[in-house]
Specification:
alpha/beta; Rossmann fold; seven-stranded parallel sheet; two-stranded parallel ribbon; binds nicotinamide-adenine-dinucleotide; binds thymidine-5'-diphospho-beta-D-xylose
């Protein structure tokens, strides 16, 4: 039976990828609730079948609006967030409002209406690992967030757990590693460097670039979330990762090579304060208990497809390029 899903943040990077995934793989209808912040783009939802996706422009902290929308849906997938670490170091307040108060507002509605709730979170809630540590994050790793962004995401996860335990809300949580793919805002590492090269600007590497991120294609993340929505056990947390550890230096050099440039043609810029060293996900639980596996395991092929996407979709990102670079320049990055 086709469901009606409420997808918060569905005009952002991972949310819009999920809406396209739902259109392709289910008969479900989607109501997107999105405030349309600087990080969103309505064009990311173009190509969805008309009649199956509805965009409601609004704030997840708006309790009456949220209440009204929960009335007419079967389940909620909560992506909406302030998502960029560098912005959270500049101005943390919107992170508290959206990530904490927004999640609280949705949980209260889930409780009132008895709706199935899936909360999207990040591996950054676990803090970071040493480069030579054989350990990876698991569902039982203690929370130890570093930045205003990751601490508000950790807070939102804990609210979900409390609403499950105290009020019996039917919720699951997933914590995913770094995503890449189409529709990612150009403030983020990979699309910033691709669009720099397209514009003739030298790519910018923070610090030494030894920091490691565990990359997963957004399409694999979407498939994992749909799997958890369909078959996840209530109250459980699932880590999502595709064994994609790469240091930033390797990624920037690969982007330059794929784009026909000298691999060394980038600048080292000021490091991020409190910069997490390494993230790494052990997704055994999701793979063994729910049978999910990533499909985009060739990182170089995925990155090359992302380069093609940003080359073909300059109109999608061009309006924000000068503003993003001015922000970084003001910080020496
Ligand atoms: P994004 O910044 O690209 O998109 C966020 C979306 O949320 C935007 O469309 C924005 O308009 C919307 N939004 C922000 N505040 C809102 C509010 N108050 N009310 C309604 N809508 C609001 O973010 P993303 O990278 O797509 O991340 C989506 C989710 O996935 C976040 O919860 C993030 O923490 C999580 N996550 C991201 C990654 C990653 O690599 N990007 C990895 C793991 C988890
Ligand atoms: O220009 C840059 N140069 C650079 O070296 C930028 C923008 C980033 N970096 C580094 C910082 C990080 O080590 O690249 C790495 C990735 O940076 P981001 O794209 O900002 O991602 P990160 O901080 O790792 O967080 C991302 O993954 C986890 C998402 O933005 C979060 O929303 C998600 O929770």
């Amino acid at each position: 039976m086709a469901r009606r899903l409420l997808v918060t943040g569905g005009a952002g990077f991972i949310g819009s990828n999920f809406v396209h995934h739902v259109m392709e793989h289910t008969d479900d209808h989607v109501v997107v609730l999105d405030k349309l912040t600087y990080a969103s783009n309505k064009a990311s939802l173009e190509g969805c079948p008309t009649g199956r996706v509805e965009l409601v422009v609004g704030d997840i902290t708006d309790a009456p609006l949220v209440d009204e929308l929960f009335e007419n849906v079967d389940a909620v997938v909560h992506y909406a967030a302030e998502s960029h670490n560098d912005n959270s170091l500049d101005n943390p307040r919107p992170f508290l409002d959206t990530n904490i108060v927004g999640t609280y507002t949705l949980l209260e509605a889930a409780r009132r209406h008895g709706r199935r709730f899936h909360h999207i979170s990040t591996d950054e809630v676990y803090g970071d690992l040493e480069l030579d540590d054989p350990a990876r994050f698991t569902e039982t790793t203690p929370y130890n967030p570093s930045s205003p962004y990751s601490s508000t995401k950790a807070g939102s996860d804990l609210l979900v757990r409390a609403w499950v335990r105290s009020f019996g809300v039917e919720a699951t949580i997933s914590n995913c590693s770094n995503n890449y793919g189409p529709y990612q805002h150009i403030e983020k590492f990979i699309p910033r460097q691709i669009t720099n090269v397209i514009r003739g600007i030298r790519p910018k590497l923070y610090g030494t670039g030894e920091n490691v991120r565990d990359w997963i294609h957004a399409e694999d993340h979407s498939a994992a979330v749909l799997t958890i929505l369909d078959r996840g056990v209530m109250g459980e947390t699932y880590l999502i990762g595709a064994d994609g550890e790469k240091d930033n230096k390797t990624v920037i050099e690969l982007i330059l090579t794929l784009m026909g440039q000298d691999a060394g043609a980038y600048d080292h810029v000021k490091d991020r304060p409190g910069h997490d060293l390494r993230y790494a996900i052990d997704s055994t639980k999701l793979r063994t208990e729910l049978g999910w596996a990533p499909k985009y395991v060739d990182f170089e092929a995925g990155l090359s497809a992302a380069v093609d996407w940003y080359r073909a979709n300059e109109a999608w990102w061009a309006p924000s390029k000068d503003g993003v670079e001015a922000f970084y320049a003001s910080k020496g990055q």
